[in-house]
């Protein structure tokens, strides 16, 4: 798991890592710049496009100067645009300025005609995580001009103007791609900033994640290595009873499809036995959609404790509060709650107290705001999610790009997989199915959440490679097995 440090911890990290590796700060900057340049060469080859690097006075600008030199060495036509003099720039900036090849175009901001950069590749190295106030003066002017002209826009570490852990105030660079060092900064992961960040790439500086653990932070970025570890093993003598018996409750009032998506996703995630309690008349369609599914009626309440996990809510509509309460009172193992089950809790706050500890709630932003009240912005929403998870001893999976898992111990884990094409009806029902399946297979709620959101996103990525904007939730669930294969899990 990759720790996400706050901006003000990064210089501490740098100092400590420099000491540990016995290297200079310039060498660390060179590593960072090479990581960017290697990414650039891989994604752009030798496109022949002109590259313009806009360098501020700090170390982000220093990175820009090193990158300009490295790309020039690879044959690109490169110009740098400077906003500070040698004496009022950072130490490593000065070093890299002195190393600039003669044939690199060098402009001072005051003399630069921004139309020259129109249509080229624009690299933003004005400010990184050291920004401490809104842009103004020449910096604001430059960003406004860059945002107006055409060309590909790439931000180094963070788009200039964005603080690393807070909501933007005023203007910021509108990047097509942001290439962030070592870990994504928190503010790159919130929907409020998506127009500034564009696509997010994270490049490695070779700082081991165990080294990051030395620094205090409640935030993590989920990576494949930590997902691989937590899976159960199938073996020769395995039988269906080893992989859990799960029950899905929902799929009423014309929404039987929702619960079928969950149930089929559970089958594809490896559940041994999958039961569905939907409206009586839906039985035929459930059986027709998957021969492996079993249907139940209300008498299942008498046997509810026989199940290893429950997934409640997709397409459930409004069921009487009494029935919902009875389910919560009779089943005391962790359950997964989604959709109408969340709306039920939003309307009847006394139900919070009945949730088995370790249960998993999976709201999208709209459902979350109904549960927790309106938020000013996503940072505020994340704070509320943390409080709700801690207070109720539950796992709160706030769905969206970079789905965030808030845990009872006050930590927040952001998912790294997924695609824009997963914003489609039923996508969340598939996640409910995956999570319920993992709980039923005996995963801890934490492992179920981490593996669940990761596989859901990865299956979505695989599906959307073929189906692009035509991706539907059924495509996502059919790709769950490929997601396992991709991680080497059989
Ligand atoms: N481990 C790593 O990730 C590494 C990252 N590197 C890069 O370094 C930057 C951070 O560099 P830093 O020098 O700390 O900060 P910045 O380059 O972002 O800029 C800070 C300077 O800018 C001034 N400042 C701040 N806000 C404004 C503003 N709105 N207007 C004008 N000037 C501003 C500030 O000075 P003040 O005294 O004026 O407050 C600073 O001088 C990181 O993002 C990476 O790109 C390293 O290369 C290596 C390791
Ligand atoms: K930048």
UniProtKB/TrEMBL annotation:
Q: Which UniProt keywords apply?
A: ATP-binding, Isomerase, Lyase, Metal-binding, Multifunctional enzyme, NAD, NADP, Nucleotide-binding, Potassium
**What is the UniProt remark on how the cofactor binds and its stoichiometry?**
Binds 1 potassium ion per subunit.
Instruction: Give the organism the record lists.
Output: Arthrospiribacter ruber
According to UniProt, the name of this protein is Bifunctional NAD(P)H-hydrate repair enzyme
Which residues does the annotation say bind AMP?
A: 399-403, 428
Where is K(+) bound in this sequence?
60, 124, 160
In terms of Pfam families, this protein maps to: Carb_kinase, YjeF_N
Which cofactors, if any, are listed as required? K(+); Mg(2+)
GO terms (BP aspect): metabolite repair; nicotinamide nucleotide metabolic process
What role is this protein assigned? Catalyzes the dehydration of the S-form of NAD(P)HX at the expense of ADP, which is converted to AMP. Together with NAD(P)HX epimerase, which catalyzes the epimerization of the S- and R-forms, the enzyme allows the repair of both epimers of NAD(P)HX, a damaged form of NAD(P)H that is a result of enzymatic or heat-dependent hydration. Catalyzes the epimerization of the S- and R-forms of NAD(P)HX, a damaged form of NAD(P)H that is a result of enzymatic or heat-dependent hydration. This is a prerequisite for the S-specific NAD(P)H-hydrate dehydratase to allow the repair of both epimers of NAD(P)HX.
